[in-house]
Amino acid sequence: MIETESPIEDAAAEQPAAMTFADLGLGEAALKALRDVGYETPSAIQAATIPTLLAGRDVVGMAQTGTGKTAAFALPIIDRLDVSQKNPQALVLAPTRELALQVCEAFEKYASHLRNVHVLPVYGGQGYGVQLSALRRGVHIVVGTPGRIIDHLEKGTLDLSELKYLVLDEADEMLKMGFAEDVETILAETPETKQVALFSATMPATIRRMSKQYLHDPEEITVKSKTTTSSTIAQRYLITAWQQKMDVLTRILEVENFDGMIIFGRTRSVTEEIAEKLRARGYSAAAINGDIAQAQREKTVNQLKSGKLDILVATDVAARGLDVERISHVVNYDIPTDTESYVHRIGRTGRAGRSGDAISFVTPKERWLVKAIEKATRQELTEMALPSVDEVNVTRLARFDDRITAALAETERVDRFRDIVAHYVRHHDVPEMDVAAALAIVSQGETPLLLEPDPEPQRRERPDRDRGERSDRDGFDRGPKREQRTPREGFSTYRIAVGRRQRVEPRQIVGALANEGGLRRDDFGAIQIRPDFSLVELPSDLPRDTLDRLADTRISGQLIELRLDTGRPQRRDGDRKPFRKSYDDDRPRRDFGDRPERKPRHKRED
């Protein structure tokens, strides 16, 4: 049994490790992929697990989320993959679709220097067609939730007869969600000769029994996690749609009293785009990423240190080892999907006992990442609200006051301009206060000093009950009479099953539909919010697969059940006709997806 400590400690006191990935026995293709993503030294779980798996032994690993365990099992599998084999060689079971997708992305990243490696995510809520087509073409690695994997086994569409590697990721979470029997059924369907890696944050009796029954002489590896963040860093997060991130960032920059700032983006192109938009808004910003030459990187960092540059926009790789004393804020424009990256990112501020602020932008679908970070770091993140127009204006006025105060200190120049203003007042008979206001306008140029209030969503008055309210005694929730509005050319009116009772606003609808369906801003027409539903104008020629994705969308935790609006009333009993069957949502819970009815091995909830 191997016991080790995770190196994810206080980011203010990082110590370089002597071991490298090359020391673990990985092949050149895997090492190239690791260099591409900027990984230099293995974490504790990786250093202990990778050689063991490469040696062919089964592994039971006790490690928290964020300790780097995905790379610990993915790299050995990639290293020994036979791309000529068509049937799946590796199966990874994960408790939620979010984790399954995250693991898939990791496999694709680590296999970037191998040709024709196919990785397939398999989870409920996704149509069978995509999965079946991929399985027919040939897949090397399948990453899925137990429920949908069971479905494919029962349909005969997933052949595990040539499986070489099986990974149970976050096994304790799968048990908590009721997947114990499904997991054991899958284990029984796989070859006896397979190699198994089981990872769990805890080791309850059920997992201990399962490891003894299905694993052969496993090596037990325990990581004593010290994943912490500095207590001097205030950690906050803000829920926002991805399309609104730049507007949110601009408001935060307006109200936060920052000295120097690092903004983290997920990709090189995102960093360039953020820096360009910030410069257009008048901020001193520059990007560093893998495309930036070392000499330019050093020049940019020195500008940040000297105060010539206020905002650095960076990728994880480019910011490694960066230590600039004046960094007061770190913003995760794209929140990282692993805790280790999060700890290293926010460790750029609050160093050596100084205070710092870390703000993370989180889309509604990424809320689970906040919980994972809190669980791994054992520190709570505080949710913050979008700074209001009033807050922005108060800050702008305070800065304007400071500029006036600074100008008044230059007495000689003030005396000269006092004479100029007095001359204007005498010859134009204008009050001095009006002249001062006019000069303020001149100094502001085209940019107004104060923001206009946020527009309120347009709502029509609810008709009086004796004039417009219709009876619902026949069992229909008719609501108030509404105007018959003809959508503009090329658009159709769709109905979604959320409204004012769910406190839905137009921006939430636009954000959710754009995120799930890949829609652009100009794909939306008028939006009408009703008490129990909303009407949205969308293009009439939306592809079927887009409609299918939108049918699974949730707003405020409720399925929207997108359908064409016919103007007919909706029954109270919820007998709606969405475009297709509504599947399970993407919250972490039992993933039944659209599994067909079958003879159950135990009682299940529908």
UniProtKB/TrEMBL annotation:
Localization annotation: Cytoplasm
Basic and acidic residues: bias regions: 456-488, 562-606
Main location: cytoplasm
EC number(s) per entry: 3.6.4.13
Motif annotated as Q motif, chain positions: 19-47
Helicase C-terminal domain residues: 247-393
Pfam families per UniProt: DbpA, DEAD, DeaD_dimer, Helicase_C
Domain DEAD-box RNA helicase Q: start-end pairs: 19-47
Catalytic activity: ATP + H2O = ADP + phosphate + H(+)
Record-annotated Helicase ATP-binding domain positions: 50-221
BP terms from Gene Ontology: cellular response to cold; ribosomal large subunit assembly; RNA catabolic process
SMART domains linked to this entry: DEXDc, HELICc
Physiological role: DEAD-box RNA helicase involved in various cellular processes at low temperature, including ribosome biogenesis, mRNA degradation and translation initiation.
Similarity comment text for this entry: Belongs to the DEAD box helicase family. DeaD/CsdA subfamily.
Name by which UniProt lists this protein: ATP-dependent RNA helicase DeaD
Native species: Microbacterium terrae
